[in-house]
Every structure is written in structure tokens, then in C-alpha cells.
Amino acid sequence: MKLVLLGPPGAGKGTQAAMLVEKYGIPQISTGDMLRAAVREQTPMGIKANEYMQAGGLVPDEVVVGIVRERLQQVDCAKGFILDGFPRTVPQADALKQTLQELEKQLDAAISLEVDLEALVERLTGRRTCGSCGKGFHIRFDPPGADGRCSACGGELVQRADDQEETIRNRMAVYHEQTAPLEEYYRTEGLLTAIDGMAPIDRVHQEITAALQAG
Question: Which one of 68, 118, 144, 205 has the fewest CB atoms closer than 10 angstroms to its CB?
Fold first, then answer.
């Protein structure tokens, strides 16, 4: 099973990817994890990526695609993989398609988790984390103790900077500008399945697996 998982920040891609990893026994591959691993292992592309990262610049597509190529040739990808966070743009999708053709592989599906923007903002801005023990809460869906402190250790709860509304809306704008066109790209390729990402987690998982089995 070789698939791409699409959706804006907070859509639940990480949660669903973890469930698919367990079901199919294939690795979840995220851009960030790949970059860090390639740099740590000093692969040829990892060395190039580190040069850009040390200089404070963005890692160019050709290097990111090279790192993806290195990762997809590792033994744990023999049965398949879940790409999370890559591709981010149509040019990256074109490069991925070419890379897979060269490796004599092809995608089985592109799953897009569809979410309502305002509901997503509420979901993300409501997240809180205990500054002492790290336990997570949500002020509406999984509230802390009556005193507003961590119910596990009594610690003070904090809101991460990337969970603040302005930051979230900026991330959404970038997503819709750069990444949303991938939906049309994979629809044209006959690979796209849109799933309601606002449904309960188990139902989203069931709909994803049903779509994969039908494909």
C-alpha cells in the first residue's frame, strides 16, 4: 500500500497515519523526519540539506526529492509507505511521480482529509498542554480540572505559539495556496479520495480503509 495523505494542519493526518501504520505494517514518512534522519546519517542528500539548514535557508525541492528517493529505497518501504507532508506542491508531486517511475513503483491512492476551517481553528486554538508533565487537554473536548490546571499533576496549562489563532490562519492560507491544488492534481490522476476529517476518529479510519480496499 503506497499512499499520500493530504490535509491542512490539524486535520488529523498524524492520528490516521499511525492507525494505518498499525493496520498495514508500513512506515509513515514525514518530510521533517526524513530530513532529520538524512542529516543525522550523513547521507549524500542529508549533507546537502544540512548546508541549507545551517545557513537558515529553505531546503530546495531537488534536495527534498532526493531525500525522499533515498528513503523509499530502504527495506521497510518494500511493502509500501504513507507519505505525510510530502508532496506539498504540484512540482513536488510531479517529481515524486517521476521518482516512483524510476524506482518501478506507483501510488495506490491519495487520501485528502477535508475539514471546515472555522471548526479546525476551534479545534486547534482550544488545545492546551501542561507545562509540568506534558499532558494534553482541550478546553472544550477534553477540559482540564475545574480550577483550570492539569488534572494529572496540578501544573499550569499553556497554549503553544503555533496553536494561536493568527498563526493557525496564516498556516491555513499557506496550505490553501500551495498544497490544496494537489487535490485537483491527484483527482486528475484518478487517485484522490476525499474523506470527512471532521467525523469521529474511528469513522475516519474506517472510511479510509474502505476506500483503500475498494481501490
Answer: 118
